Amino acid sequence: MCRLCAITSNEFFSPLDNILALETMKEGHDGSGMGLILKNLGGEFESLKDFPILSGICSKDGLHKMDVFFNKSGFKLKYTWTPKIKPVKGIESRDYYFARVYDYPDEYKDKSSDEKENLLLKTRLYLRAMGEKDESIIVFSFFPDIITLKEVGDPLQLCEFFGLDNSQLKAKIIFAQGRQNTNYAINLYACHPFFIQGFGSMTNGENTAFVPIREFLISRGFPGYIGYNSDSEVFAHILHYTCKSLGFPLTYYKDVITPLKTSEIEKREDKEAAEFLKISLRPLCIDGPNCVIGFMPDGTCFMVQDAKKLRPGVVGGIKGRVGMMSEECGLESAVSSRDRTKDVFPMKYDMVIVTPGAEEVKIWNQLQGWTTITN
Amino acid sequence: MEPATRLDNNHELTAQDFPYIIRWRDDRCKRCGRCTAVCPMFAIEPSVVVKRQIKSIGLSPEPKSERSVETVVRQTSDIQKFCTGCATCNLVCPNDAIEPEYNPQHKFLFHKNEGGHPYRRGGRRNDPETSTLDRLKFTRISMLTDPALDAGRHEFRIRTYLGRILPAEELPLIEDNGKLILNKSAGKFVPPVREIYPVMIGSMSVGALSPTMWEGLAMGITYLNEVEKMPVVMCSGEGGIPRRLLKSRFIKYFIPQIASGYFGWDEIVRAIPEMVEDPCAIEIKYGQGAKPGDGGLLMAHKVLKLISEIRGVPQGVDLPSPPTHQTKYSIEEAVAKMIQSMSMAWGFRVPVYPKISGSRTAKSVLNNLVRNPYAAALSIDGEDGGTGAAYNVSMDKMGHPLASNLRECYLDLVKSGKQNEIPLIAAGGVGRKGNLAANSAALFMLGASAISIGKYIMQAAAACLGDEHNRCNVCNIGKCPRGITTQDPKLYRRLDPDKVAERVVEVYKSLDIELKKIFAPMGRSTELPIGMSDALSADDRAVAERLQISYAC
Description:
The complex is a heterodimer. Chain A is an alpha+beta fold. Chain A has helices at residues 15-24, 60-73, 113-132, 155-161, 210-218, 233-245, 251-257, 262-265, 271-280, 328-334, and strands at 3-13, 34-41, 52-58, 76-81, 96-103, 137-144, 146-151, 171-178, 194-196, 199-204, 291-295, 301-305, 314-318, 321-325, 350-354, 361-365, 369-374.
């Protein structure tokens, strides 16, 4: 089972907190890779919030190709962050890990955020395609206030490798995932968390409905719905499709992936909508076992499960710092000072939503609506 | 010495030319005559033979020749009275003295065209080989990485939708205080969609079926809906629906079919103002898998009083439906006029969908339907579909196998992103070897939203004798020995409609369990695994490649 650790806070913290929480949840070999997404960045990035950050890895050749591309594209490089790589036995270092901050091309400066986001997506996909064959360029995200780091290896060793223990890299929302040992064919694009246009998610478990969902998403005609090296990538894209493409409130994400029975829908206030979504988005229904942790562009975070197999995902914390973990022991590490009796284990109908800045933890229940709000 | 005339038999066929040879045992037969009385083909007849026996009775050998006249049961050598292998003789024989035996070397098709009339029959394609559907296996089993579900304990939702489904982008919804509500002012037409059990009973008409059989099926599905809460639906076939049923609340479990002969539609249209419920859907038949490009046919001897009343025709005349709808000259016409006018008849509250025979042109039909917002589904009837009457050549040689036809259509829908908008109904040969659940599940995974069965339910619910060795298959002449496809009261009284209904219920209940036993180990339970092609493997590389699934050996 993949280990998942998300922390959302009203203060900047280091990804080391997440990695230590992952470590407490470790069972057996876990060297297939780690992914980190940092959102609401601090330190040197705090003053660069409005500028898109390209996160990725490239070879020397790839770096050259990328520079040539950006020189032509009109994007202007503003700032570059690179981790201080420390050789660690067992981790094969690649040439160049980076998070580069760019300014938009002049003609895009006054365009709407949607147009800017589409440009960023198109650019990321172009770079991905450019370097996919020879793995000379691997890009994970290109979006303001987001940094993504991914590499193959044990999370704790990777922390040392990237020098995260001594780094100033901090953020208010950090998602971390350690891949489990059934993933033998390692491709960094298969590594969670996944990100698309402000939406991100990571998942554990196997998605038994993967193929029909993948086919449905690809056939939406949206350029970002590609990849799917992992069956979990669809969760990020379903989130984007539901909340951005269709413009539905976040709570409907749960109705899309785990629709209610008709007899249950009858009792809902919005029964027409719930029934429509169940029918029209039938191919997006999952059967699990999956625990999904995600974030929205505004910093809202959430956890949902499939409706039957239920993994031991848990949400808990204090006002201003909340952890969302695949197992309770991770939460002990991340927010030890919390009241454990208020920990939430989302059940089949639940969606646990943490408001930006970890102000509130709310439970939305498919049958009952909002049931619990804790501060 | 035999007379010379005995050798002049060139005009006769030998027993070896026939598909079934009667094995009759003189020593067991008590000459009751039941077998010859019951044979629908008059293939066996009582006869007398003169026997010459040599006997020696005394202590010393004194052989004497004795002649005796004995009654026997004989198979005729008249091609018109060929034994169909139905084995009704065996069924009625008290002493197991008689049974037909299949003769693989037969030369039946060389001879069954007397009078210049090609061989006509009922049933389906005579091909006993393993079908593609039976070559598919479910190879994606959930175990440790994702736990399998428990077929007996978990809740399964084995349902599907029949009707045109709007894409989410077009739903008339608006957000109001964090909730999505119906935007009534948008004036958007939302097509009707029915939630049904994904295996339906396909189109078999009152007329093709006997009154007892049709009634049995109808009672069976009504029980399933009302008592078992399984929304199984049934298509009427061309030929109308009894008036009392049309006006009852049970009509919602039925799909009236309109075909090129429009038989029965006078009655249906007249009943509309008095109908208390809408039918489940309307099926427009453009083609049939058993006889693609050919029309329907109810032969004169099946058109008795009841049928003539329901269909609104005189008794005792052949009722041929033309190969195509005569009033339509193009697919655009057919789709635009037929589908819309049928939709309009019920105030756009009833899904209307066409049924076509499997064909290389199926994709073109589908492309057209996709562009018509009123087309509710497409039913594709593969070459193994059955019929009550057709030319043997049509049944055996015309048509497209179902699996690749359906898959191609589904993948075409995927390409255009409309895989959830227009459901594909797969029919024709599902459960041909008895594996109804496995065949159905495989078809769902190839892309079918629903399955239609005909022959299987006749075999399972009423013990239809027909098979792919051309056994029985006399549905066309109204002499069905089981009373399933006949209008002769002497024959259809053999069939107890209550028993048929009971069997329909049993079949569906066991099908439901078997489907769960397939879906549970694959970890699926909430929705039908439509298009879950990663779960399937074929034992043949070419099949796997064509269906775009994996190959496993």
